[in-house]
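Sanity check

After download, print the first record. It should look like this:
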Amino acid sequence: MMENVHLAPETDEDDLYSGFNDYNPAYDTEELENDTGFQQAVRTSHGRRPPVTAKIPSTAVSRPIATGYGSKTSLASSMGRPMTGTIQDGVARPMTAVRAAGFSKAALRGSAFDPLGQSRGPAPPLEAKNEDSPEEKIRQLEKKVNELVEESCIANSCGDLKLALEKAKDAGRKERVLVRQREQVTTPENINLDLTYSVLFNLASQYSANEMYAEALNTYQVIVKNKMFSNAGRLKVNMGNIYLKQRNYSKAIKFYRMALDQIPSVHKEMRIKIMQNIGITFIKTGQYSDAINSFEHIMSMAPNLKAGFNLILSCFAIGDREKMKKAFQKLIAVPLEIDEDDKYISPSDDPHTNLLVEAIKNDHLRQMERERKAMAEKYIMTAAKLIAPVIESSFAVGYNWCVEVVKASQYVELANDLEINKAITYLRQKDFNQAVDTLKMFEKKDSRVKSAAATNLSFLYYLENEFAQASSYADLAVNSDRYNPSALTNKGNTVFANGDYEKAAEFYKEALRNDSSCTEALYNIGLTYKKLNRLDEALDSFLKLHAILRNSAQVLCQIANVYELMEDPNQAIEWLMQLISVVPTDSQALSKLGELYDSEGDKSQAFQYYYESYRYFPSNIEVIEWLGAYYIDTQFCEKAIQYFERASLIQPTQVKWQLMVASCFRRSGNYQKALDTYKEIHRKFPENVECLRFLVRLCTDIGLKEVQEYATKLKRLEKMKEMREQRIKSGRDSGGGSRSKREGSAGSDASYVDPLGPQIERPKTAAKKRIDEDDFADEELGDDLLPE
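Expected structure tokens:
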């Protein structure tokens, strides 16, 4: 192992540590002041003598300089260049520098550390721009044009279309000035084409938004024909849209196809949208076969709900059953691309996970998913209701086929809704037995569907006045889904029909707690409070309903009626005025206004509204009677005649109207016409005593011979009347007890009121009369009763 180890000899002539204290004399600073070459170099380099400084004692030892190689010599640089300040060939070469740039030892003495030179003060100001230069003017003008385009777009988004158009026009004018100035200063290649394109495109868009289609088309033509604009051909889609709005369908299809040719195939989504526009245009022109080709191409390339629904409509238009079936299957197969509902159910008790689920449960993405799903269900349900009656021999078989297809798809829950729609179709065809049988099939289904079917069954039985069955199915609906407001409303209706108003109000309140926007429950609880004479609560309910249904004639009428019951005629008149602004031809509302003004003593206003009521409905006896009496009071008896004649036509068995006609003739001085009228009345009603009295008086005044005949008849009738009264009086004395029984029975019959009938003695408006007397046939429908 030791054969490769070499030991140093003990007697070595060279010293291993020699030369470490030797250095180049150029680095010796002790004798610089006496070095004439150095001093000359300093003077020639700086142009002045260096300041005299104190000599710094050196730590080096004064001894001859020697190197490790022996004698004193100068060192050369790495490039072979002699060191600065050395002596070569006996000539002293002057030094070129003795300090680093920007640093001097003298400057550091007595000064603070300032590496950034902040003590020198602020930098000199920048050179001011020359605003009068052409380049600067062009730059400012270009900035102004961009600002005008942005303001135009903002005004359009805010709905101020006129301001947006003015800004767009101003931007166009300034952009043309900018182009002219730029052409004078620079070459045409430096023109900002992007700015020109944006200005023209915005101007065309604003013209189109303001329905100035000719100007918009001209502006688009300027863009399209300019070859310097890249991808300008796409704007032909916008031109096609304008032609579509103008119903110039042939040109719209032409421009859509030109745009389709200029859009590359990589832009698949854009091409699909243009194809869809082409298909819709074909539908508007009645070219259903071409529309089917367009939509089938879309469904094969990129299926979507709108294209599938339009394909079904086109197939329905031509009556092709097989194509309708295939199109419906394609619509069912369109992927929704949304997450399952299980994603929004927290699988664990982890608080962080629960917080995350709560955060995304109702975010914008979740809302978009709900909207997409609702739209898909709407299209499928509408398509099924459309094609079911025509794809098979009967609509029932067609519905069954649609139900089977839906059950085999991702929309399984829609199958039950289709079955309920099938029952409603039976109702529209007046086939109530089939409707009831179809709805009864859901009694063993899940709770939601069972509740909807039971609600409809309860409503059907309620309309048929079978309140026991209606109550039974209302209970089933409520038990299946306690949070179904329609079921609770129907249950309240059945209780209301039995006269238990307090309990009915409780059901209506519960329906409102589950769905505060349930207008049926809110309306019915107002009617219930009226029955209970709790007018303040009834008014509050109807006012809440008015806030939801602003133009509902029934609600306005009920509010006016409540104010009338509260003896506030001014408020009642005010709400009735709102009512006739909604339904100006409602004769009952007009007559009610006339009645209120009459009670306030304003005869002229009362006459105006009674007359308007008579004009719209000239068969209202109460209105006719008031108008006739008004003309008699104002001494215009001849005008009252036409109203009483109409009343006698409406009620020909009532003698009083004909007597009023004869009386008007007599008061107006037309005695002959009055006499003829009385004779005609006596012929029709020979036992009328009043008619005979007037005949006797008239004949006496005129001096006719018939007076004796009429007087004899009058005496005989009066005698018969007197005998009849005596018999009645003797009968009362002999059978007082039985008579009082009969009178009590008759009185009870006369005062009988239908539990759901009108309870107000004054004339009612048509809307209120319909509300009070129709047993809530319309207003008590729930949301699930008759879906649109």
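If your output differs, re-run the checksum step. Summary of this record's structure: The mean pLDDT is 78.
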